[in-house]
């Protein structure tokens, strides 16, 4: 909820309206707001799903707490006897969202209510300090509240304005990377106040580039190029941006490799892995759409068997893209599901099978072992599979992404990367550091939640956009 915004019904109900929001993460909050807004304006089907889920999960709680928290209207007559003390305020009103009672789904599935401490394994946990949202926006009460407010506002506003024309990919990429680009170019501008390049300016530039998560190698390359070519000579911020764009392009060109579907494999099995909330399921939906548009037959496997909502989310993508979805009830064994999916996709002659997996933090050894097991079991059906293991990286996690690539790479044999949420961060430079360190192919990047916001990765576009250059 933005600063100064009047708390809505749920905020007031839960006493959150006047609380100080954590300062640490204005960036995450803004990304969440944007994501929330985009989700709210998504297609009807997804909207209906989210509303239904939000309603299911909150209705019982709302009714109960509303009944307890909202005192009855004082009856004008007869006046209440003065000696009657008001009832004590119900303790539940102060219950924070993360201690919410079990959802109807959890109750139905016999899942015990989540304790506040420690966090259960498969909830979204903070990955990198406080910069991680507590869960998908559609599962939070703030989301429900914002959707309701947005719906009221849009109902009140006459839609006289024509919709904005659809932007091309470079424009979307540039606006998605604007925060990263502003961070870097703003720093460059503030450093290059003198006309001649000297040692102090180069030191300051080094700091700016390192803070933008570009990594030591690329930072050194930029600084050394400038020292060699421009030392003690006239230089402008624009000159520096040109060198920046060149060096970023050089670092990224070797890793900008498309995901090639080898038709010798039927199905071509793609395993999607990553930490909680990094965008696996959404990316699967977008990829399914792309493959279907290319005329390929696609099957999806709802391997995130921990979250009923993830299964439902994938089923919606399946309906949208015409891809059958192999699913089992929440709580089923993920390896068994992967086995069934490969067997069925092979029997039905599908071109591509994309297997979702539950989000897991890379430092959870037992969960990483489970991932290894899924791969072993898939190989019982097809020893050459999986043919691609794609790691989705949430750009907002910054430096932690390096560790994710390292561990998932070792444990799951990652063959390529997808970086999502570049629109929600000023830390997009991390992709450059990852490229230099690991040399793994970067197949796609995402700058929003829409289907068209995930595109094949192109080094020159990214380099130009992050350096704030026109294309
Ligand atoms: N702004 C933005 N949001 C994104 C992008 N990609 C995914 N998201 C959103 O990120 C949230 C989490 O995405 P999911 O696909 O559910 O993530 P997941 O990795 O499957 O999550 P788990 O199943 O919990 O591990 C959703 O709200 C997505 O819409 C992106 O490129 N930009």
UniProtKB/TrEMBL annotation:
Its EC number is 3.6.5.4. Residues 47-66 have a biased composition (Basic and acidic residues). It is found in: Cell inner membrane; Cell membrane; Cytoplasm. GTP binds at residues 274-281, 356-360, 420-423. GO terms for molecular function: GTP binding; GTPase activity; signal recognition particle binding. Its main location: membrane. Pfam families: SRP54 (PF00448), SRP54_N (PF02881). Involved in targeting and insertion of nascent membrane proteins into the cytoplasmic membrane. Acts as a receptor for the complex formed by the signal recognition particle (SRP) and the ribosome-nascent chain (RNC). Interaction with SRP-RNC leads to the transfer of the RNC complex to the Sec translocase for insertion into the membrane, the hydrolysis of GTP by both Ffh and FtsY, and the dissociation of the SRP-FtsY complex into the individual components. Belongs to the GTP-binding SRP family. FtsY subfamily. PANTHER family: SIGNAL RECOGNITION PARTICLE RECEPTOR SUBUNIT ALPHA. HAMAP family: FtsY. Part of the signal recognition particle protein translocation system, which is composed of SRP and FtsY. SRP is a ribonucleoprotein composed of Ffh and a 4.5S RNA molecule. This is Signal recognition particle receptor FtsY. It comes from Paradevosia tibetensis.
């Amino acid at each position: 909820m933005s600063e100064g915004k009047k708390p809505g019904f749920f905020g007031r109900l839960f006493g959150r309206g006047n609380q100080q929001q954590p300062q640490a993460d204005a960036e995450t909050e803004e990304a969440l707001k944007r994501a929330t807004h985009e989700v709210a304006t998504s297609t009807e089907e997804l909207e209906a799903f989210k509303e239904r889920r939000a309603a299911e999960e909150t209705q019982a709680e709302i009714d109960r707490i509303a009944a307890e928290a909202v005192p009855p209207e004082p009856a004008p007559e007869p006046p209440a006897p003065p000696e009657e003390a008001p009832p004590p305020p119900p303790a539940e009103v102060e219950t924070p969202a993360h201690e919410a009672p079990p959802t109807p789904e959890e109750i139905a599935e016999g899942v015990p209510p989540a304790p506040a401490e420690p966090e259960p394994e498969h909830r979204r946990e903070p990955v990198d300090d406080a910069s991680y949202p507590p869960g998908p926006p559609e599962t939070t009460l703030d989301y429900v509240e914002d959707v309701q407010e947005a719906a009221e506002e849009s109902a009140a506003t006459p839609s006289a304005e024509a919709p904005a024309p659809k932007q091309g990919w470079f424009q979307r990429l540039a606006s998605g990377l604007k925060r990263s680009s502003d961070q870097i170019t703003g720093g460059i501008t503030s450093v290059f106040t003198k006309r001649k390049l000297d040692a102090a300016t180069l030191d300051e530039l080094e700091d700016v580039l390192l803070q933008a998560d570009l990594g030591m190698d690329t930072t050194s390359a930029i600084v050394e190029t400038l020292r060699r070519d421009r030392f003690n000579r006239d230089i402008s911020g624009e000159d520096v941006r040109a060198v920046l764009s060149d060096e970023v392009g050089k670092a990224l060109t070797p890793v900008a490799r498309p995901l090639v579907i080898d038709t010798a494999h039927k199905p071509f099995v793609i395993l999607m892995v990553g930490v909680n909330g990094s965008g696996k399921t959404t990316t699967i939906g977008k990829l399914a759409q792309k493959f279907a548009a290319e005329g390929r037959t696609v099957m999806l496997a709802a391997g995130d068997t921990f979250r009923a909502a993830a299964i439902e989310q994938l089923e919606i993508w399946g309906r949208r893209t015409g891809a059958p979805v192999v699913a089992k009830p929440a709580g089923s064994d993920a390896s068994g599901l992967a086995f069934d999916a490969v067997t069925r996709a092979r029997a039905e002659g599908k071109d591509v099978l994309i297997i979702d997996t539950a989000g897991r933090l890379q430092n959870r050894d037992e969960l990483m072992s489970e991932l290894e097991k899924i791969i072993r079991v898939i190989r019982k059906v097809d020893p050459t599979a999986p043919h691609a293991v794609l790691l989705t990286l949430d750009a907002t996690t910054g430096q932690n992404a390096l560790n994710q690539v390292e561990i998932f790479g070792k444990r799951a044999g990652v063959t390529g990367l997808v970086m999502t949420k570049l629109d929600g961060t000023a830390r997009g430079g991390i992709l450059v550091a990852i490229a230099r360190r690991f040399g793994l192919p970067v197949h796609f990047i995402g700058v929003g939640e829409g289907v068209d916001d995930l595109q094949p990765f192109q080094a020159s576009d990214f380099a130009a956009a992050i350096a704030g250059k026109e294309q």
